[in-house]
Write a structure and sequence with these properties.
Layout lengths: L3 E5 L7 H9 L4 E4 L8 E5 L2 E5 L11 E4 L7 H13 L9 E4 L7 H14 L11 H9 L16 H17 L7 H16 L2 E2 L1 H10 L4 E4 L25 H4 L10 E7 L2 E3 L12 H9 L12 E3 L1 E2 H10 L4 E5 L9 E10 L2 E3 L6 H6 L1 E8 L16 H14 L3 E5 L7 E3 L7
Parallel strand pairs: 1-8, 1-9, 2-5, 2-8, 5-6, 6-7, 9-13, 12-14, 13-17
Antiparallel strand pairs: 3-4, 10-11, 14-15, 14-16, 17-18
Helix pairs in contact: 2-6, 3-4
Bound molecules: inosinic acid (IMP).
């Protein structure tokens, strides 16, 4: 298996950035296949911090980086991110960045609608990142999106704009908002078109060539399986499929190309935004983990909710996404606890569940069944071999592996690229 697909197996923020960066240094191409600039991937390389939202993590190391058709692309966010990284010395050009010409665009009207809906929902809000992701995907599925390839045909865009704006004007009227200013929108598109078009191409073709040449491709998922539009905690989810299967449809390669599926799993659980979270800790342990783990959103700066490791949801995510092996991250955040807990099942109205039920009310009501293990006082931070881990940390990793029925391929012990314990090499497996 030459290729690797990386996905988050919880609610996002599992530490994918570091693992992807580590793998990207050995890949020939890195592909984003879903989501948009709602993602937040932090890379720390030689002490330098790079924060990415839209660009594939390979871009920092100069690896060919591809934004696939499954992504919703905010062209202004792309420009801002490219310029920010260039300011940090990263070289970005048409040789190392390709954007699918069939990517739907996120427009200012999508951001507006995202905000209007969230405000109107009050306490029932999803807690979105406010980037317009959901409304942009709605327009894609509604067959009225403006896509990257349309930027080369702005003079004949009017019928498409009419169709798009008729829809948005009706929605905006419901929120007492003025109709879309079409001229202003067209002007904004004219202003950004050339910047995006320099990277635009049929990326499926580029990938076909790359694959034929025997290159190693890394597919970089965003968010996590519990935020998947079908399999997640609906309606408190994002608007794309975050599972591994999307790597194929969101980039233009067949399912036989996506290779080893590496699920990224944090050694505890976090979630940002609203929705059910059975193992959430609202006590001083949760606060301690949040502080030690710097659990603040990369994109919105929001404080993340924190809880114990939930083996039920991770086992489910691994099954749904066909995970070959996991990378366990941030184990060092648990250092110094007297005991650690793992959720092994749920209780709901007198019944025991070994899976996370689909209904939102059931998901909100399930009570976790915990197994308690001794913690470890020694530091795991920076360990680079299994032998460097304290015995109780090893037991914790082994127990997780058993409960989720999936092997641990890597353990990450700090944000630094090389502080990684490798059990199995995903590119060689
Ligand atoms: P949206 O993707 O902005 O529509 O937000 C929908 C839900 O997904 C919200 O709960 C967000 O907090 C969550 N979400 C979106 N992107 C990420 C991410 O990269 N990490 C964690 N949560 C995310």
């Amino acid at each position: 298996m030459a290729n690797v697909t990386v996905i988050g197996a919880q609610w996002g923020d599992e530490g994918k950035g570091k693992i992807v960066d580590w793998l990207a240094s050995r890949a020939d191409a890195v592909v984003r296949f879903q989501g948009g600039h709602n993602a937040g991937h932090t890379l720390v390389i030689d002490g330098n911090v790079y924060k990415l939202s839209l660009l594939p993590s390979g871009i920092v190391s100069g690896t060919l980086s591809i934004i696939g058709n499954g992504v919703v692309l905010d062209p202004w966010a792309l420009k801002a991110e490219v310029e920010k990284l260039e300011g940090q010395g990263v070289v970005i050009n048409a040789d190392n960045l390709a954007v699918a010409d069939n990517c739907p665009l996120i427009l200012p009207i999508h951001r507006d609608l995202d905000g209007l809906r969230e405000t109107a929902a009050g306490a029932g809000k999803i807690g979105t990142t406010g980037r317009g992701i959901g409304p942009a995907y709605e327009d894609k599925v509604g067959r009225r999106a403006i896509r990257v390839c349309d930027l080369a045909h702005l003079d004949s865009l009017e019928p498409q704009l009419d169709r798009l704006c008729a829809h948005h004007d009706a929605l905006r009227a419901g929120f007492d908002q003025p109709p879309v200013d079409r001229e202003a929108l067209l002007e904004e598109l004219r202003g950004i078109a050339d910047f995006v078009l320099q990277y635009a191409q049929p990326v499926w073709k580029r990938l076909k060539k790359v694959r034929k040449a025997g290159a190693k491709i890394l597919f970089e998922g965003a968010q996590g399986v519990l935020l998947d539009i079908d399999h997640g905690t609906y309606p408190f989810v994002t608007s794309s499929n975050t599972v591994s299967g999307t790597a194929a449809s969101g980039s233009g390669l067949g399912p036989n190309s996506t290779g080893y599926v590496l699920g990224i799993v944090k050694a505890y659980t976090t979630r940002v935004g609203s929705g059910p979270f059975p193992t959430e800790l609202e006590d001083e342990i949760g606060q301690r983990l949040g502080e030690r783990g710097h659990e603040f959103g990369t994109v919105t700066g929001r404080q993340r909710r924190v809880g114990w490791f939930d083996a039920v949801i991770v086992r489910q995510s691994c099954a749904i996404s066909g995970v070959t092996g996991i990378a366990l991250t941030k184990i060092d955040v648990l250092d110094g606890l007297d005991e650690v807990k793992i959720c092994t099942g749920y209780r709901l109205r007198g019944n025991v569940y070994d899976y996370f039920p689909s209904h939102a009310a059931d998901q909100a009501e399930v009570e976790p069944i915990y197994e308690t293990m001794d913690g470890w006082s020694e530091s795991t931070a920076g360990a680079r071999s299994f032998a460097d881990l304290p015995a109780n940390a090893v037991k914790y990793v082994q127990r997780i592996q058993e409960l989720i029925e999936t092997p641990v391929a890597l353990v990450s012990t700090s944000p630094e690229r090389d502080d990684t314990i490798l059990m199995r090499d995903p590119f060689m497996d």
